[in-house]
Amino acid sequence: MAASPRGTLQWEQQRAADIVRLLSLYRPLLDACVIDFFAEGLWAQLPPPWQTALGSAAPPHLARLLGGPEPGGPGPLWPLSLLAFAAAARALSFPRGPPGAAPRPPCQSRRLHPLLRRHVKPKKQHEIRRLGTLLQRLSQATGCTRVVDVGAGQGHLSRFLAFGLGLSVTAVEGDGRLAGAAERFDWELLRELHKAGGAAPPPRRRGPPQPRSALTPRGPQHIPGRLDPALPWGEFLLPPDPPAPAARNPLGGPGGAADGARVLVTGLHACGDLSPALLRHFARSPSVAAVASVGCCYMKLSTPPGYPLSAWVSALPGHELSYRARESACHALEQYRGRLAGGGSPRLRAHCYRAVLETLIRGARPGLRRPGVQTVKKAHALSFPQYARLGLPRVGLDPASIPLDSDAVGTMLEQQHKVVAFFSLTLLLAPLVETLILLDRLLYLRERGFHCALVPLFDPRFSPRNLVLVAARCPLGTVLTGLEEEDGSEDEAESPPEEQSPLAQ
Fold this sequence. Notes:
Helix content is 41%, strand content 10%. It has helices spanning 9-25, 27-31, 48-55, 59-65, 80-92, 114-117, 122-142, 156-164, 176-197, 274-284, 311-314, 323-328, 333-341, 349-364, 384-391, 407-413, 416-447, 477-480, 483-486, and strands at residues 146-150, 168-173, 221-224, 226-227, 237-238, 263-271, 288-296, 451-456, 467-472. The strands form 2 sheets. The protein has a 7-stranded mixed sheet, sandwiched between helices. A two-stranded antiparallel ribbon has the order 4-5. Residues 198-213, 238-246, 253-259 and 488-505 have low confidence and may be disordered.
């Protein structure tokens, strides 16, 4: 567990202050963008002893610097200042899961009913099962059986909570395409339940008789809408985009839910300002008994009001986080560390390719900086000229007018190991930024007297945003006790993967 529900406010405040102080010391590195590596001479900005050590470090030793296992063979002599920097970054970051476990890709979960696996990728299966277990515990602790899933997408979590766990679920989604897919998947599942029970397929959107199945026949209710963080909690639900008929706010008005019942609110990888909006509505709404929020896309946060939320972090000098710093917090550190530990995956060359391309772009058009170049698929399997011929037209440049195999380009490509080392340094700060953002949210709730905790709920090796913020109006001891042990061994395949829908996420 990353943060205890009984943690003292003073301890958490001190941790936030220490993180802000450390980030301020390394602000140039925090705000550096690796695609500027050659164009802005980022390597030369590092302390000379760091350059010497990092320039000779093999990928497995860089992985160790990021907290990976000790590699065999002699490594570089790290400067004490670099070791202190890495140790401080790791010590102040929230733990994200058991370190050192052998990487293993997610697989079909035998812990989910086969009908709940349809259209759901293994990663999402892992997430909805783990978050579902937590929400089930919250339901038991609070006496609430109603759940509002905000930003429900295609309804994978909502479907598991309703059909699999028997909770009453309202799924709120502003994207009509995703909401339509969710309702279609619900209907498909109901049809299969009826087949298993020997009943005729039900009309869409209507509950069927009870079939002989481990699943319940009651699916989630889908409401089109989106959250406006600026509105009071009782008025937060807006029409979707494009507009649809007005929907009833599942949290009701200022007096509570429409029928006086309380609800649990959740958001699985709620992007940008959506996560802090959920926390604000929980804090203001007596109808919301508890909230479980998993954040995502920190670079989309407005600053403020999405960050900072707490009075404490707002008052810390230097608490500001640039777009680049917030973007860095979304990286998959464990995945990158795995590539380094494996001796240097070919995928590591992608950052070097983009940095060289940025230099060529600025040379051809000096006023153009960091243009959006859509991801080139399997860039690591291409030569640089092949990569550049795909990337340059996307920013309006003719590859034929730019020398792609010059000596200057070759010299930059030979420095790939330096690009990898520099990017590894920036990744050391990424968990610190995420910790500060989540700690700010935790402090916001603590300042208002709520019980809350941060829990590393998912396996970070394939679910990088794995920390869930749990808050309730009652103590969380019974909710969190034994949560890690309950999961047991990793999911194993029970049967060959079902065919994935093009809409599966």
